[in-house]
Amino acid sequence: MSYRLSCGYVSLCLATMPFACAAAFAAEDAVNLNLDLSLKAVPNVELRLLQEPPKLKARSRPATRAASKRDEYEKSYDLYIRYANGTIYNPTTAKYDKVRLRSYQQTSGLALDGRDENAATFMAPTVVMAPGQTVRFKLHNQLPQLSAEECATTDINAARPRGCFNDTNLHSHGLWVSPSGNSDNVLISIKPGVDFEYEYNIPIDHPAGTFWYHPHQHGATAMQVASGMAGALVVEGERYPTDTANGDLDVVLKQFQPSDGSAGEVMLLQQIPYDCPSNNLVSAKHCEKDAVGVLEDFDQVEDPNAWLMSGRYTSVNGKVQPVLNMATQRLYRWRLIDTGFQASVVMRIRRANDPQKLFKALSVANQDTDVMDMCNGEDVTQFEVAADGLTHDRIIPKTLNYLQPGYRSDILFSLPKAGAYCVYAETNVNNLTTMHDINNTRLIGVIAAKSNARAAVRARVGESPREFLLAELRSAVKRLPGTQLSNSVRATILNDLDNGLKLSKFVPHKAFTVTEQEVLRNKTKEYATFNIGKIDGKFKFMVESKPLDNAAPQEKYLYDPHRIDRTLVLGTEQMWELASKLGSHPFHIHVNPFQVISVVRTDGGKVDQQYQDLIGAWKDTLLVMPNHKIEIATRYQRYIGEYVLHCHILEHEDQGMMQNVKVVLPDGKGGGDAGGHGHGH
C-alpha cells in the first residue's frame, strides 16, 4: 500500500514555502538517486531482495466430492519432508555455499525455488488460517530409512547416532487446539516412508495472530528445526469489537498490509548451522568449492556455543542479509518469528549515515567488524502490538526487541527519512548459552527506504514516531465502516489510543484480577524449575516440579516419555512459579497460554530489562533467567489430553528438559479423574 497523505499538507507547503518545499523535494530525490546507485553496486542484487515466504497451496477438492459453500472452512495441505539441494549465502566468504538439508516442501517434485541455484530453499511455506476452519496437514516423510540397529540408543535423552534424525511429527506452536489423536499430538512418531494427516479444528473464538509450525520429535527436534524445517502459521481476524465483546486488531491493521496480505508481513528468522562436512566448532568455517554443507551430527547443535561458533548468519524468509525495498512515512507491520534452535536475537533497526558503505558491505567478506560503525544513526522505534500471537492491552515501544527461541513479536514501525537502515542483532546482549566472549554482531538485513514529494512534506511537520503511529491508527479507526463498528465502540478505541496507546478492545484473553491472583497464590502452585545437573558423572537436563530452594533428588526429574509428570483438571485456574538453577531457558507449554503476573530477583538485584514490559502480557513462551523467580497464571479450558512443557532451546529439550502434562476431566468431588492415560508414544 502506498503512503497516504491529504493534499492539505502539499498545498500548504507550496502556498507558503514554495522554495523551501522545492529544496526539500530535491534533497529527497538526491537521496533516492544515491540509493539506486548504491544498490546497483551490490552484485546480483536481484537475488538479495527479500521476498515473502510462499503460501502453502491447499489441496484441490477431490472430483468425487461435490462442491459446497462450506468448502472455505475446510482446507487440506500436503507437506513433503525430504532432503533438498540448494545454496545459502555466506557473508564470511561473500559466496554461496552448497547445502543438502532436510526441508518441508509443498510439491512432490523440485524443491522450493529449486530452479534457482542461488536461492535458499530451506524455509517452509506460510499457512494462513481463519477461526472456525478445519485445517489438515498430510505429512509425507520421504527421508531415508535407517535400520533400528543403526539408530538404537540406550538412553532416550542421549544424543542419537550420526544421521539418525529422520523420524518426525508436527507441532503447531501456539495454536489453541486439541493435543490428542490426529490434532497437535507431538507424542507420536512418523517413520520414513509413512504418510500421516494431522487435523486441526480451529475454534471459532481462536485469537487472530502469528504462530508457527515445526517438528517435535524427541531427540531430533533441534536437528530438524536447525535444518530449516519451520514455517509461519497466521490466523487472520475479521471480528469487529462490540460493546460487550473484543475484536481482532487485524480489522484496523489490514489497511496497512502489503498487496499480498498478512503472508507478506511474515519475517521468519532461522538459524541453520550447516557445516562441510561436519562441525568442529571452528568459527566461520566455510565450504570449499565442491563441498556440500550438511546437518547430520548432534555435535552441530549440542554445544552451548554451537550457533555462535558455526559462523553462520540468521536468515530472513530464506535469505541471508537480504535487501528490503521500503518507503518512508508509512506504517509497516512485521510478524517476527524466531525459529532459532538455540540463540536469542536482540533485534535493532537503526539508520545508517553512509548508505553507500553499508550496501558495499553486502558484497564484502568478513564485514562484521564494521557493522557498528555502519549502523550509527538514530534508532527506529518498534511498537509491539502482540507477543506470541496474542494482542497486548497496550502498544509497547522498544528499540531493543528481545527475541528468544520460539518468541513472536508483532511490531509496527515507520521509517522517517529516506536512506539505508540496518536490521541487526545487537552485540553480546543476552546470549542464552554462550560461555565465551564471542562477537555476535550480525547484520540480518538492510532496508533501502525511498521517499517521495508527499513524504518529504510530511517529514517537515516534525512528528515523533509515536505521534506518527497515533495519527495513522486514529485515521485507520475512523475509516472503519459504520455498519461494522458502533459510534460508542469507535469512541472507546480512539480514547484508548489517546490515553497510553491502549488496545483494550482487542485483547483476546481476560486478564487475571489482583484478587484472582491472590486467591491462586494461596492455592497449590505448580513449580517448574530448570536445572542442568550431574548424575553418575554425566550432565543431565531436567525440569524439576519443585520450588527453587527445594533439594529433593534429581533422578526422578529425568524425562520419561511414558510418565505423566503433572495431572491438571479441566475448568480450573492455576498459578505457576518458574525458575532456573543453571542457565537461561525459554519455558514453553503447549495448548494453553499464560499471563505473566510477576518477576522478582532472588538475589536482591535489578530485574533484567527484557521483563520490564512483560507484566500482564499473555504468552506461550517465556525466558527464565537465573536469579529470577517468575509467576504466571493460566486457565485449563476446553481440551483434555496429554501434551508437554519444555525448554525451547531445542537441544536442551532433546536431552530431556521436558515433562509430560495431562489435563483430565473433573471427578465431581473437587479433583480430577486421572484414569485411562492412553499414551500415544
If you had to describe this structure to a student in words, what would you say it looks like?
The chain is of the alpha+beta class. Among the domains are: 71-258, Immunoglobulin-like (Sandwich), CATH 2.60.40.420; 514-664, Sandwich (Immunoglobulin-like), CATH 2.60.40. Helices cover 17% and strands 29% of the residues. The protein is built from 14 helices and 31 strands. A 7-stranded mixed sheet has the order 11-10-9-13-18-15-16. The protein has a 6-stranded mixed sheet with strand order 22-21-24-29-26-27. A 5-stranded mixed sheet has the order 12-20-19-14-17. Helix 11 (465-479) packs antiparallel against helix 12. The radius of gyration is 25 Å and the shape is globular.
Sum up the structure in keywords.
Immunoglobulin-like; disordered N terminus; alpha+beta; 681 residues
Describe how the helices and strands are arranged.
Layout: H1 7-16, H2 18-40, H3 45-48, E1 74-90, E2 95-105, E3 127-129, E4 134-141, E5 171-173, E6 195-201, E7 209-214, H4 221-226, E8 231-235, H5 250-253, E9 266-270, H6 299-302, H7 306-310, E10 315-316, E11 319-320, E12 323-327, E13 332-338, E14 345-352, H8 355-361, H9 371-374, E15 382-387, E16 390-398, E17 401-403, E18 408-413, E19 419-425, E20 442-450, H10 453-460, H11 465-479, H12 487-498, H13 514-521, E21 526-535, E22 538-544, E23 566-569, E24 573-580, E25 585-589, E26 594-601, E27 618-619, E28 621-624, E29 628-635, E30 641-647, H14 650-654, E31 658-664
Parallel strand pairs: 1-4, 3-8, 9-13, 12-20, 21-24, 23-31
Antiparallel strand pairs: 1-2, 4-6, 5-7, 7-8, 9-10, 10-11, 13-18, 14-17, 14-19, 15-16, 15-18, 19-20, 21-22, 24-29, 25-28, 25-30, 26-27, 26-29, 30-31
